[in-house]
Write a structure and sequence with these properties.
Strand content: 15-25%
Helix content: 25-40%
Shape: rod-shaped
Distance between the termini: 155 Å
Radius of gyration: 62 Å
Strand order of the largest sheet: 6-7-8-10-9
């Protein structure tokens, strides 16, 4: 893995070529076999020559004229020219031993190799301290803001067409002037209370009108607009384009903050993309810090990358590490809320439909049960039952009457068989006196008038003698 120094404004170009972002160490990188593709962002040693170049560094390609004929015009290839420059630095003794002092900035460490720049008030110089050299040196510490003296040689990087100091010795000269000045300014402003938490204004939860102080040509404003479009296309964004780098930047940024503060916005975003500490220095300007503190409108910052801290971040009502995060932090994700509401609405509608279906099934069941108790249905059912009972009753009555008639016939026959009159036709009869049947001779006296009833009439007679049979 090879670490790359990709400026924020060039991140899309690097990503398009296949560079990858290391989230833990916050830097771009590529594989070693892809290094040639990313030469302009590599701070290492010189890369191998162009594979298309000849042994002398010149290209074997030809130029085609307008009429299509190949011509040799004597022009040198870019590789040949940059190799000549590199050879000049390599062979010139005045560049072999160089002593220079300055303040360290943009320091990074990769696999033991040290990459950084040193600067003074007017210029910067790229520096590389290789691991094998660093391992031989006494213990030292490189960091942004440190004043150092360096001993080394100047080399020309043909791929990036820039010179750099290959460091052989490092001398610690203490803190640099710029770092010391920045530290004193920070302590001064902090003592005045510009960074106090209790003085920070509340950020509105749902801003509808946002002022932006940034460059119209930078990636920052494009990132903010993209985030706003994705999260809440209804929010209104207003840009006050300012210079965000160079000597004129502080005054431009101050003017932008003041104009936006007077514009009646819900909040102000001050932003710019990443860059070196020199690029971000306008946001350490005392006037810029005081302009943010004096603003009546809440101010948030999104300057540089995660590792970048400027004084404006300390005075702002809220600091975000990048312009993208600043936009995400202050613009509510209304579109996600809308999508969530639609999902909830669909879920509610589905639940309602399920509940209605269940209720309809219950209602249909109850309606069916209730229909059984409808007076008309009940009456009809009872009428049917009454008819059946009525029909059954007549059947039963007929059967009962037949049984009873048959039984009566049997009993009549039996009774007739037992009737005295029935036997009269066989010569039998019965005796009565004054209508009372005579059952014993003790009931008759001599001269009593008796009636003999036979089957076809009666015979009246008088008793002449009563003979009583003696019991044995």
């Amino acid at each position: 893995m090879v670490q790359l120094d990709v400026p924020y404004r060039e991140k899309d170009d690097a990503k398009a070529l296949g560079a990858k972002w290391n989230y833990s160490d916050k830097h771009w990188y590529c594989e070693e076999d892809q290094l040639e593709r990313f030469a302009r962002w590599y701070h290492g040693d010189l890369l191998p020559g162009n594979a298309d170049a000849g042994d002398d560094g010149s290209s074997d390609k030809v130029i085609v004229s307008k009429d299509g004929e190949s011509v040799s015009d004597g022009f040198e290839s870019v590789t040949a020219v940059t190799d000549m420059i590199a050879t000049y630095f390599l062979n010139n003794s005045m560049f072999q031993i160089v002593r220079v002092k300055g303040e360290v900035s943009n320091y990074s460490l990769w696999k033991g190799h040290h990459f950084f720049t040193i600067k003074d008030s007017a210029s910067v110089l790229k520096c590389t301290l290789w691991k094998n050299t660093a391992d031989l040196l006494p213990e030292f510490k490189l960091e942004d803001g440190k004043q150092v003296g360096l001993l080394g040689s100047i080399r020309f990087n043909t791929r990036r067409s820039e010179g750099e100091l290959v460091v052989a010795r490092v001398f610690d000269l203490g803190e640099g002037d710029e770092k010391l000045e920045l530290k004193l300014l920070k302590e001064k402003l902090q003592a005045e209370g510009l960074f106090d938490i209790e003085k920070k204004k509340e950020i509105p939860k749902y801003p509808s009108k946002i002022g932006i102080v940034s460059s119209k040509d930078g990636d920052a404003i494009r990132d903010i607009c993209r985030v706003a479009h994705d999260r809440n296309p209804y929010v209104r964004l207003f840009l006050y384009s300012v210079t965000v780098q160079g000597a004129s930047a502080p005054a431009s940024i101050i003017d932008g903050i003041r104009k936006m503060d007077a514009g009646g916005y819900d909040l102000i975003i001050v932003s710019r993309g990443g860059g070196s500490s020199e690029d971000l220095s306008p946001f350490d300007d005392e006037g810029v810090v005081r302009a943010v503190f004096a603003a009546q409108t809440p101010v948030v910052t999104g300057v540089g990358h995660e590792r970048d801290w400027t004084l404006i971040d300390l005075v702002a009502d809220k600091r975000f590490s990048t312009p993208t995060y600043a936009a995400q932090g202050v613009i509510p994700d209304v579109m996600s809320d809308i999508r969530r509401i639609k999902q909830l609405d669909a879920s509610i509608q589905s639940c309602i439909r399920q509940i209605v279906r269940k209720k309809l099934l219950v209602l249909e069941s109850k309606r069916e049960r209730l229909g059984r108790y409808d007076p008309k249905v009940v009456l009809q059912r009872n009428m049917d039952r009454l008819v059946r009972l009525y029909d059954g009753l007549y059947v039963n009555i007929d059967e009962l009457m037949n049984r009873r008639k048959h039984r009566l016939d049997v009993q009549i026959a039996t009774l007739h068989g037992n009737s005295p009159t029935a036997k009269l036709v066989k010569g039998f009869g019965y005796i009565s006196r004054e209508g009372i049947p005579v059952t014993s001779v003790d009931m008759i006296n001599r001269d009593d008038e008796l009636v003999l009833s036979i089957h076809d009439g009666q015979i009246k007679t008088r008793v002449t003698e009563v003979i009583k049979q003696e019991k044995e």
